[in-house]
Design brief:
The complex is a heterotrimer of chains A (180), B (316) and C (430). With 180 residues, chain A is mainly alpha-helical. In chain A, 73% of the residues lie in helices and 0% in strands. The longest helix of chain A is centred in the middle third of the chain and has 36 residues. Chain B has 316 residues and is of the alpha/beta class. Chain B is 43% helix and 18% strand. In chain B, the strands form 2 sheets. A 6-stranded mixed beta sheet of chain B has the order 7-6-8-5-9-11, covered by helices on one side. Chain B starts with a strand and ends in a 5-residue tail after the last helix. The mean pLDDT of chain B is 95. The chains are: A mainly alpha (180), B alpha/beta (316), C mainly alpha (430). Chains A and C meet through helix 1, helix 2, helix 3, helix 4 and helix 5 of A and helix 1, helix 2, helix 3, helix 4 and helix 7 of C. Bound molecules: sodium ion (2 copies). The site of one sodium ion has 8 residues of chain C, from loops.
């Protein structure tokens, strides 16, 4: 990891690590659904709990992905006003937007924490293998906790350094430069 | 009008469980209260997903919610006894029996966050398939869409593959061959457009899926005494029987219609019936284990259930 | 305070938050919970957060969204989108405005393996915009063509928005996808016509066509063809469900990319991360729009709108026109997916009561929200192009895309007049 990305700061590395794990999880769910389809058509035997496991694991990946998006700022949002105003005003718009996101993420983390507690006592399980739900919910909750941290850090960077939200990889500007 | 109660359910507003069960119940409450209680009905998952409905009532998101305990495996272990096949052949008697039995045998603890209003089973559902299935061995190697977690276990036990798709997608799963059979109440053949996909029916009372209507406790406590009386009157084994009757009638009409349409009805022999019942025995053992592990007295709860069914003339 | 007043207030606050760059899903979620608290009570409103978001992210019926996103990302990262443009250029480049035609064609081809319009627009901006710029295309034309071409992403199957429509209305998603094929091809042709007729004269002359180059370019696009056929035919013939087709499609794209040496383990990992991020952005809108939907439902405003529309007596097509107008106006301000989640549950009962086909309406409504992607002030395709081609202002892109909006409306009228264009293909399934 350090070899391929020597210029990353520790926080970038942590986020990168987290999103890679989440990305791999997405890949695994894809394989699970394919394997289940093969099991059903090929052997008239679906994988036990493929239905419950794929949706629960994907939920975990999405929750951890929220941490990644909270950091990178690539949520779907309306840029019209932010683009029309100057850099100072834009910074304050960005601060406001990410403050609201942070507040929502905290509320969500709190309430889903309650859900995890309830699930630990409630005995919800998957349909076939009767695996308890709560470890999946707990993993979702941990992803949200991570999202609170990354969103707060991003907010801090917007406040302190005035960095913008969103990091689309633009076209190579030098390519267009040549054509002038 | 003094109070508005929000009632959420997850079935389309026009099909039997709503039109012949939920809606008449709500109308009766409004009438009996002389218009003091208004019930706003939110059908078709407008206020939340079907498996979330118990929590929605418990947490006050809505005042009254229609719950299928079978959608949340492991959550209501005692209630899941009612999902084991071949226990009853009459849903109206069973509705009253379940209401009384569950209230007296751990139901108040299992659903401690809410007030139980009524129990709402369909007429005993059947097994509908593309090719004839008459004995338990026929299940092996077949993909079957089960009604709930317990039927999923049953299919697994018999060597079949349970295919979990939501009811409205059953037709798609059948037409694509993802599933070759379904367990459904008779009415669902028309509600979900399945008549051409699975025209072969095993004509025996197979299983029950019992929904329950539950009410948020605070919403109840806030009511005036006379309004409480109206709700109490409507949350009774008698009302469970009434709403079950409405749904059962609709199911039997659908069965008659299927016969009139010339679909294939296979009536099992006595030996086959015995074989099916025998095959379901492990489900009872598994149920006992679960309940015992949760600290319940499984044997006495089971005996009480059988006695309640007998008392209501609804035992298999 | 009446519920109607609270609901309209909710929309005002929603648009204010969105204007201040609060992520759309978060804005909807906050207004949804806040509005629910005003109508019902704050405690149950907060409890919505314990239930609904977890249900949304763990819903099996939505898992096909990340799979189709992943398929599109893998296709891009293994060079398939560039190959499509090269093929388009080789065959259509000889006409006047040839690069524009090639861009539309490549957008259509890419839409056949990517489920999202924004992703289609983003991918094609990176590939086609520099080429058009180099050839001397005006910015308005170059970006307008891509913004419009990008909308094909949600019409030509696979499509995230069609999948969500199917999810909400319990309509067969596979059938919806098949129904999108003919209108998608029609859209490609009409867009090409617009490029020729509207922009053609002002565009620089084109490359010379060479048969050998044309054939060579075709050899590059077999993978896209294979993927489209594998996914769409397996849905058409009912071999697999749409979710399974999506997962198989993503896996197949990765395998093809690896076999051709275009994907390394490292780019595969990057693709997974990129697909996850895009999916998370989509799920955030889903979560928020669902919460906002519960708020609207509890105000009873949707029920009142439904009753109003039913009792209006405007006739079948009058009511349909009214509904589409509502979608068009709201589409100017709302995200396509958010609109489907909010508005379809409200109007769908009316549509079925009027006897319209749910599959046909799915295509019609997706084409209407497609317009929202390219109309100001909130046009996601335009935003994403602007975020990649920084120097082209939003206003320029909105200006460039205008002729395509007009042609889209024409196409809409055409498909309303001739529903068979939509329904013939899905009707022939099985
Ligand atoms: Na597409
Ligand atoms: Na718009």
């Amino acid at each position: 990891m350090t070899i391929e990305s020597p210029n990353l700061r520790p926080i970038d590395r942590v986020v990168q690590f987290v999103e890679r794990i989440a990305g791999i999880t997405l890949g695994l769910v894809t394989l699970l659904v394919v394997a289940s389809a093969i099991g059903r058509y090929g052997f008239a035997r679906p994988l036990p709990d493929a239905f419950d496991l794929s949706r629960l694991i994907l939920g975990v990946a999405i929750a951890w992905g929220l941490a990644s998006v909270g950091w990178h700022g690539t949520h779907i949002k309306v840029d019209l006003l932010a683009q029309a105003v100057g850099p100072r005003a834009r910074r304050w718009i960005n601060v406001f937007a990410w403050l609201v996101l942070l507040a929502f993420t905290i509320a969500l983390t709190w309430k889903i924490g309650n859900r995890v507690e309830a699930a630990m006592g409630g005995g919800d399980t998957t349909m076939d293998l009767r695996l308890p739900h709560w470890p999946f919910f707990a993993a979702i909750w941990l992803g949200l906790v991570a999202a609170v941290f990354t969103t707060a850090l991003r907010l801090w960077r917007v406040l302190r350094d005035g960095v913008d939200l969103g990091e689309f990889d633009g076209i190579d500007e030098s390519l267009l430069e040549d054509q002038k | 009008q003094e109070v508005t109660l929000r009632l959420s359910h997850w079935v389309p507003p026009t099909i039997a469980p709503a039109s012949r069960g939920i809606n008449p119940w709500a109308e009766s409450v409004q009438e009996a209260s002389d218009g003091r209680i208004a019930i706003q009905i939110f059908p078709a998952q407008q206020m939340g997903k079907a498996p979330d409905h118990y929590d929605m009532a418990a947490q006050g998101i809505v005042d009254i919610a229609y719950v299928n305990p079978g959608y949340t495996a492991g959550r209501f272990p005692i209630f899941s006894l009612t999902e084991i096949p071949f226990m009853t052949d009459d849903s109206v008697g069973a509705a009253k029996a379940i209401h009384t039995w569950y209230s007296e045998n751990g139901g108040l603890e299992e659903m401690s966050d809410v007030k139980l209003c009524f129990v709402h089973p369909h007429a005993p559902g059947a097994l509908h398939s593309k090719v004839a299935i008459t004995s338990p061995e026929d299940i092996a190697g077949k993909n079957i869409r089960p009604a709930h977690a317990t039927m999923a276990r049953f299919v697994s036990l018999l060597g079949g593959g349970p295919v979990q798709v939501p009811a409205p997608e059953a037709r798609e799963a059948l037409s694509k061959g993802t599933a070759e059979a379904v367990t459904f109440p008779w009415g669902a053949m028309y509600d979900f457009n399945l008549t051409e996909e699975v025209p072969v029916h095993l004509d025996m009372p197979f299983y029950l899926s019992s929904q329950v209507m539950v009410m948020n406790k605070n919403s109840y406590d806030r009511l005036s005494d006379e309004n409480k009386a109206v709700i109490d009157e409507h949350c009774s084994p008698e009302w469970s029987g009434k709403v079950a009757q409405g749904w059962a009638d609709a199911d039997m009409e659908a069965r008659d219609q299927l016969m009139a349409d010339g679909q294939t009805f296979n009536t099992p022999t006595e030996e086959e019936v015995a074989a099916w019942r025998e095959a379901a025995m492990p489900l009872i053992d598994e149920w006992k284990e679960t309940v015992t592990a949760r600290g319940g007295d499984a044997d006495s709860i089971l005996d009480a259930y059988k006695a309640a069914l007998e008392a209501n003339d609804a035992a298999y | 305070m009446t519920n109607g007043f609270i609901a309209s207030g909710g929309f005002v606050v929603l648009f204010a938050l969105m204007a201040l760059r609060v992520p759309i899903g978060i804005a909807m979620g906050i207004v949804g919970v806040g509005g629910f608290a005003m109508v019902v009570h704050p405690v149950p409103a907060m409890n919505l957060l314990s239930q609904s978001p977890i249900s949304s992210i763990t819903d099996f019926n939505l898992t096909l969204i990340p799979f189709f996103i992943l398929m599109g990302v893998l296709a891009t990262n293994s060079g398939m989108s560039a190959e499509l443009f090269r093929a388009g250029r080789a065959w259509l480049g000889g006409f006047k405005g040839g690069l524009g035609l090639a861009s539309v064609g490549a957008c259509g081809g890419f839409a056949a393996i990517c489920g999202s319009s924004v992703a289609t627009a983003a991918t094609m901006t990176k590939i086609a915009y520099p080429e058009m710029k180099k050839a001397g295309y005006p910015d308005a034309a170059a970006t307008g063509i891509i913004a419009a071409g990008g909308t094909l992403g949600i019409l030509i199957p696979p499509s995230v928005v069609l999948a969500i429509y199917g999810f909400i209305t319990e309509t067969d998603i596979g059938m919806l996808f098949i129904a999108g094929v003919v209108p998608g091809i029609l859209a490609v042709l009409m867009y090409m016509l617009t490029v020729r007729v509207w922009y053609g004269r002002h565009l620089p002359p084109a490359d010379k066509f060479s048969l050998s180059e044309g054939l060579a370019a075709l050899r590059g696009v077999w993978a896209v063809g294979l993927l489209f056929i594998a996914v769409i035919l397996s849905i058409y013939f009912g071999v697999v469900t749409a979710t399974e087709a999506a997962a198989v499609g993503a896996l197949l794209t990765a395998v093809i990319g690896m076999l051709r040496g275009r994907l390394t383990w490292s780019t595969l990992l990057d693709s997974l991360v990129e697909a996850l991020r895009t999916s998370v952005a989509i799920y955030t809108v889903l979560i928020g729009a669902t919460l906002f939907g519960y708020f609207l439902a509890v105000t009873q405003v949707p029920q009142e709108i439904t009753t109003f529309l039913t009792e209006l007596g405007a006739g079948r097509y009058g009511t349909l026109a009214l509904i589409l107008l509502l979608f068009f106006v709201m589409g100017c301000f709302l995200d396509a997916m958010a609109m489907i989640i909010l508005m379809v549950p409200i109007v769908f009962p009316v549509i079925t009561a009027l006897g319209f086909d749910p599959v046909w309406f799915g295509i019609i409504v997706v084409m209407t929200v497609e317009l929202g992607l390219i109309t100001p002030p909130v046009g996601m395709n335009v935003y994403v192009i602007n975020s990649i081609a920084h120097r082209v202002s939003l206003v320029t892109i909105f200006r460039g895309v205008l002729p395509f909006v007009t042609i889209d409306v024409l196409r809409l009228i055409l498909l309303i007049a001739f529903p068979a264009l939509v329904l013939a293909l899905p009707g022939s399934m099985e």
